[in-house]
Please model this.
Amino acid sequence: MHRRSFLQSGVAVAASGTLAAPALAQRAAANTLRFVPQANLANFDPIWGTQFVVRNASMLVWDTLYGIDDTFTPRRQMVESEEVSSDGLTWTFRLREGLRWHDNEPVRAADCVASLERWMVRDGMGQMIRALKQELVAVDDRSFRLVLSAPFPKLLLALGKNNTPVAFMMPERMARTDPFQQITEYVGSGPMRFNRDEWVPGARATWTRFDGYVPREEAPNWLSGGKRIGVERVEWIIQPDPATAAAALQSGEVDWWETPLTDLIPVLRRNRNIRIDIADPLGNVGCLRFNHLHPPFNDPRARQAVAWVVNQPDFMRAVVGGDDALWRQMSSFFTPGTPNYTEAGSEIASAPRDAARARQLLRESGYNGEPVTMLVAQDLAVLSAMGQVANAALTQIGLNIDFVATDWGTVGARRASREPRANGGWNIFFTWFAGADCTNPSSYLGLRAHGTNAWFGWPDDPAIEAGRLKWFDATTPAEELAACEEINRAAMISQPFTPTGFYQAYQAWRSNVSGVTPGPLPWFWGVTKS
Model:
């Protein structure tokens, strides 16, 4: 009650201050779309890392060879045509005519070869392709060839997926950057240019429409089709304070807010100039992620101890507030309501919470009160809420929590460290996965368990990986589901991460903005402002 009252009063105070001043609101030209993203754009290399905010920004700058639509079907994007040999081993791709980089140089096949080589090092599906790759070469300026040692039927899905890292195409000189080092140049062939000289991390980032972009003729659908930008300029306004962001939306200082706080939705609904809808029907999967390299969570019993006290209703109500229609409990690692959802082996998730069992598992793991460093991003309300709930639950079972309150950019950098916590490493951080990314294991970052090649946390579980390979070999939906059941059983035991629940979120925009559509990320193409 106090939290809701405080937030509502905060909106009223902020709305009466300088943010709502008519002079400021009038500066927003009709050809400029001002957007409040989910987090600060602290870095800008979509291959080096996996943060959604970086992926979302990158969609404006870099294009892809293929792009999935809302049925998860890969469609041609930069590619004009492809040929595949009868044995499935040789793929030849031809680029569309007229593609140009933002520096007005033509897009060449050699650029795509270098981009794919860099992406293959960091992406899970890319690593599988890389293991099969016998040749990847430019044939001429518009064509390149990939030769595999064994068929990879889901190749086009890998090249067109929305999961991070996305297979973005970059100029060869940029794509030759070490995959573990960040790029320092931001030239793409996508629908907008990035204004590097205006970028102020923590404050704003801006883009200008690229008039040399050649969109496809098809209607836009998720990552596919003609990406026509309806404004001259897009500005991201970094605003971590929800009350201030709400006031800015009400006053017209900003046009679109990606992740409004649920508690503020009733206030926003009362404004007839604001539209609100579910951002993505496939929702999100909350994640409590472990570092599997160092004690205590290098022992599966310690990870299971945490799973036994993670009470999803507590986490989800902290995340979404009092709107119980926005969340549901999930005894699975897969997105509820989708064909591969399974509760196989789910006792640890579906049984009543058991703190005594958790303490016993901690003792058996050898834990003896050592500090556990938990990284909690305070500038993302979802992650801050999960961190607070986890801190109370894990302290209850005897974990000595070192609560590190920081920002998401710092979490994104620190989670890459494999050092022990005493040397700047970590033990737990929080994030979420888009439900669209968790419908199957193809590029589900959180479910990869191939050791040091896995996503941050580096779990190592051959049983999960074996089930994943069975999914890739499956030829029917029944076989795919059976593989997911095998994966779910193994993951419930090894806990690569502990799901904190499934939830949906709202997005909000001004009524003079048209074309906002739901999906796993904000689609800027087709959006106009009157």
Notes: Confidence is low (pLDDT under 50) at residues 1-21, 23-28. The longest strand covers residues 284-290. The CA atoms of residues 31 and 231 lie 5 Å apart.
